[in-house]
């Protein structure tokens, strides 16, 4: 029977990458299950709502496509589904006649607030309670470095 590799047998960069993938997948699955069970709201819908809730003004649909971890076509499908549930509205952009802007409705804000509490509750025992402020700051630094590198690559072409 094949044995499992241990952390010490794997190069540090490979183990760190595996850790990021494992953590992202595990935490996302946990949050998705909690959101679907409590609110019939997949995590992809919540992600779009999170960006909308964080913005004081309607968000261009193209910005959602660039900001989320979803493809533009996925964002479009999510916005369609959220609109069908009365959680978001689409309005023509005042700045660009070819574009639409998306915003949460009052019902959307209410659902988002409840879903955000569910997300935090789901993460608390496996993330928030386990990590101290230094851990969270280290994760934030790593995330910012990776995002900055991606942005720099995008600017180069």
Distance between the termini: 47 Å
Largest sheet: 3 strands, antiparallel
**Strand tally:** 3
Q: Outline, from the CA principal axes? A: globular
Oligomer: single chain
- Based on CA atoms alone, the radius of gyration comes out at 18 Å
Q: What are the secondary-structure elements, in order, as H or E?
A: HHEHHEEHH
The helicity comes to 55-70%
Instruction: Specify the number of helices.
Output: 6
Strand order, main sheet: write it out: 1-3-2
Average pLDDT metric: 91
Low-confidence stretches: none
DSSP strand (E) fraction? 5-15%
| Structural class category | mainly alpha
A few lines on this structure:
The chain is mainly alpha-helical and 157 residues long. The protein has helices at residues 12-39, 43-53, 61-67, 72-84, 106-128, 133-156; strands at residues 59-60, 88-92, 100-104. The chain is built from six helices and three strands, in the order H-H-E-H-H-E-E-H-H.
Overview of the molecule:
The model has no long low-confidence stretch (mean pLDDT 91). The protein has six helices and three strands, in the order H-H-E-H-H-E-E-H-H. It has 157 residues and is mainly alpha-helical. Helix 2 packs across helix 5 and helix 3 packs across helix 4 (72-84). The radius of gyration is 18 Å and the shape is globular. Strand 2 and strand 3 form a beta hairpin. The chain is 68% helix and 8% strand. The chain has a three-stranded antiparallel sheet with strand order 1-3-2.
